[in-house]
Amino acid sequence: MTLQLKNVTKQFGNNVAVNNLSLEIPENEMFGFLGGNGAGKTTTFRMILGLLQKSAGEITWNGEKIDYEKSSIIGYLPEERGLYPKLKVKEQIVYLARLRGMEKKEVIKELESWLERFKVPDYMDKKVEELSKGNQQKIQFISAIIHKPNLLILDEPFSGLDPINVEMLKEAVIDLKNAGTSIVFSSHRMEHVEELCEHLCILQKGNPVVQGSLRDIKLTFGKKNLIIHADYPLDFLAKFPGVVKHKKTRNGGILQIKNEIVSQEIFQELQGKGFVRKFELAEPSLNDIFIEKVGASYE
């Protein structure tokens, strides 16, 4: 069961929100969408769901078009919150799950299990407006997954959550993936995409500027990060041949270098200058790649 986008375009008047986007999202995997505000991520999600009509192209799930008949196999967590504030949690979830073909008894059983897991077992009869933003997000997440969808779309699922709740939701997402759900998600947080996704796409003004497997993207990028902790200033390395960027840290510096050979030359250069506590060659971060390709940090 693969999600495929072929030459998908969305225009609003003269504005092209998504331009000729082609993607294949493998099953049982998490696929990451990155891009600044207005890059076209949410528009793409809405087209996948059929909430927005595409201007051109084709979107298929397992070779078939996605329509209302398939709503029972798809889950969606929108970035903007959409719960009814005056309804109790139980009423809310039962209503939404019934729309997807579940029986009330089954919904209650699943809901009890999820509330227990998210450490809010007493929230069944609380009104949504009585909950904190973080706990409303948990309820909204439950509403997106209670019917055990085959395809799950998460738009900024961790926004507004404290670190403990982020981990809780992250574990739930990983368990869903391991149980066979295909997951597409966007996140402000590069490290979440880096940690969770095997494949990703970076959009800029509706155009895919980077896409593919995270491993291949990092290899193709070529540049490496060199982390050095030393007992003396490392400013002189900023102009060292092969050093692309130099960032001072409390303990030394982080250098972005063109390739591994440069690290060996720097290692030689450091000999006899003083005590080096750390000398580590690391993969480029997704943030490094994003900044280079999009020209600005995500935030």
- Under the CATH scheme, the architecture of the largest domain is 3-Layer(aba) Sandwich
Instruction: Output the radius of gyration.
Output: 23 Å
The total domain count is 2
By CATH, the superfamily of the largest domain comes out as P-loop containing nucleotide triphosphate hydrolases
First-last Cα distance: 34 Å
Class per helix and strand makeup? alpha/beta
Mean pLDDT: 91
Biggest β-sheet strands, sense, barrel? 6 strands, mixed
Helix share, percent: 25-40%
The secondary-structure element order is EEEHEEEHHHEHEHEEHEEEHEH
Beta-strand percent range: 25-35%
Helix count, DSSP H or I runs of 4 or more residues: 9
Q: Uncertain segments of ≥5 residues (pLDDT<50)?
A: none
Order of neighbouring strands in the sheet with most strands: 6-7-8-3-9-10
CATH topology of the largest domain: Rossmann fold
CATH first level of the largest domain: Alpha Beta
How many β-strands, per DSSP?
A: 14
Based on the model shown, name its key terms.
299 residues, Rossmann fold, 2 domains, four-stranded antiparallel sheet, 29% strand
Which helices and strands appear, and what pairs or packs with what?
Blueprint: E1 3-12, E2 15-25, E3 30-34, H1 41-48, E4 56-61, E5 64-65, E6 74-77, H2 89-99, H3 104-117, H4 133-145, E7 151-155, H5 163-178, E8 182-186, H6 190-196, E9 199-204, E10 207-213, H7 214-221, E11 224-230, E12 243-248, E13 252-257, H8 260-270, E14 276-282, H9 286-294
Parallel strand pairs: 3-8, 3-9, 6-7, 7-8
Antiparallel strand pairs: 1-2, 1-4, 4-5, 9-10, 11-13, 11-14, 12-13
Helix pairs in contact: 2-3
